Amino acid sequence: MRAKTDNATSLDIGLLLYQGAQRAAVHGLADLFLVANRVAAELGAVELPRVRVSFWQADETGQLQPAPESPGVAVSDLRVLIIPPSLESAPQAELLERHRASLRELHGRGAVLASVCIGVFFIAASGLLDGRPACTHWNYVQALAQRFPRIRVETQQPLLDDGDLITSAGLMAWTDLGLRLLERFMGATLARETARYLAVEPVAAPLPGAVFRPRLEHGDEAVLKVQHWLQGNAGQDADLAGMAACAGLEARTFLRRFRAATGLRPTEYCQQVRVGRACRLLEFTRRSVDQIAWGVGYQDPGAFRKVFQRITGLTPSDYRRRFAVSGQGECSGSAAEKRLTLT
Predict the structure, then answer these.
(1) Per residue in 204-243, is it b (16+ CB within 10 Å) or e — as a string?
(2) The domain that contains 308 carries what CATH number?
(3) Residues 16-44: pLDDT tens digits?
(4) What residues make up the domain containing 182?
């Protein structure tokens, strides 16, 4: 069943109010998006949607409900839900379990889930990060890895945009996350001007192909199921028959609906997912280009190099020379500063 969920007049971003959530981050993000709307108006960007911020809480049954300060909003409108940080210790299992089903349901509708600091524990407990990369505050890296061993916990990345799931590391990383969401959904100019207004460091816009931002709000549930599957396994071992089977569709029907929903053929989509994952490996690991090619699903490293250059405009070796973070074995909060000095 297909239903159009995109709202051209507003970008609906929700903030999760859970027990212990840092209110400074919640209100700071709300203010950041308010400033973005003001900046967009001053720029005369009438074609851009307005950011509409709402606040959400889980009721006794675990269902997301609008908080009293957000009357008249619907969960079906949400394009993004942000799980803010906390000044307390890592959330207890009972609190995480209460939110598990609602987060999975929201993600299954095509919403992007984003976290700051230990907010990642909520997404991890939902199972959506199993087999996928994520980052968190350096003080909670070990706890995250121990409690959720199926997650590939990254220690070098201050912000990890994996398409349908975004995680950020630092306690104050909510500014970076907010600006990245603006850059993704509203464009680099508005994100940069919002950062300038707030007198904070802008988030560097990634090269084309380095971060894949798939279209998720199309409303085709069968196609969305395949997209989530591809993001989860980085597009590896994905052929037409397997994708059609995942969607529960005949191959020709799947091809037609996939392209209509995402704007890409399945092979092009898989290439984008693989190259995005390869970019992170080139930046943050010392693996050889051949090893990275094999790791993201290419049997032929030469074919990988051609696809990588076509999508990013750089060879894998040139990309690494330009963007690699030094000291990949370190665990520190200065990766963003290192990245900025290299770009």
Answers:
(1) bbbbebbbbebebbbbbbbbbebbbebbbebbbebeeeeb
(2) 1.10.10.60
(3) 999 999 999 999 999 999 999 999 999 99
(4) 10-198
